[in-house]
Write a structure and sequence with these properties.
alpha/beta; Spore Coat Polysaccharide Biosynthesis Protein SpsA, Chain A; 9-stranded mixed sheet; 7 helices; 30% helix
């Protein structure tokens, strides 16, 4: 395929620094907003608007861009993972959307474990967690979130939007991925980390309490009925055993 022109894009409440010197970067600085919880519609609509503004301004400044390296601001300091994501996209050399795995480092009563963070954007992996052996490999999913690469023309055609019904249908990433009609891949070998202090995840202490905590939210109540995530539990168990 022809050479790609990458543009790093993020949104933040302050001007951020891009760790890759030879790649153009645009940071959209917006106001700080406080919302009740992560599945709040006003929050998702606000972030959708911010991301569309970031894309519009970034592409206007860099019109020759062919691909977007979308990295949420929490992960910008993880330069090695960003470089691995770009290198993997180059290696695959195809018209795809590629995401990395994001993990929250959590603490229960005695042990540390890691929980897949972007379960809303990637519902197939919502149940995925590990203590010692991290799942590995390249998996095909319906959507990826937080740290991903996609052709800029996909956004030009579809932009970000909130899919319906909310919140079961996901967020702006689900909208873009599903409408792209491209293969959506997630590389579990490319890891971005955060911890429970900056995580909105529920802490799970047992499978029983995990399920109880999971299904109180409307998006989780319909998870197993969703045509894309009917086998979510089986997928997670299979990956955990690899």
């Amino acid at each position: 395929m022809s050479a790609r022109n990458y543009l790093g894009v993020t949104i933040s409440t302050k001007q951020e620094t891009w760790p890759i010197p030879n790649m153009p970067f645009y940071c959209h600085v917006g106001p700080r907003q406080n919302f009740p919880h992560s599945e709040n519609r006003h929050r998702v609509e606000f972030l959708t608007k911010q991301r569309n503004e970031a894309m519009s301004a970034g592409l206007a400044l860099h019109p020759n861009t062919t691909h977007i390296v979308n990295i949420e601001s929490n992960y910008l300091r993880q330069e090695n993972s960003i470089r691995k994501l770009i290198a993997k996209y180059e290696q695959l050399d195809d018209n795809i959307i590629l995401g990395a795995s994001t993990w929250a480092k959590m603490q229960d009563r005695m042990f540390t474990y890691y929980q897949f963070y972007d379960g809303w954007a990637t519902p197939e992996l919502f149940y995925l967690r590990y203590r010692l052996r991290r799942p590995k490999g390249l998996v095909q999913v319906t959507s990826v979130g937080s740290c991903l690469i996609f052709p800029s023309e996909v956004w030009v055609r579809h932009r970000f939007a909130v899919p319906e019904p909310f919140p079961r249908a996901g967020i702006y990433y689900n909208w873009l991925c599903e409408r792209s009609q491209l293969p959506i891949l997630l590389d579990l070998d490319i890891v971005f980390l955060r911890n429970y202090r900056d995580s909105e995840l529920i802490r799970y202490f047992s499978e029983g309490r995990r399920l109880k905590a999971t299904f109180w939210k409307p998006v989780r109540q319909c998870l197993l009925r969703n045509r894309y995530t009917r086998r979510a539990v089986e997928i997670a168990i299979s990956l955990s055993r690899k």
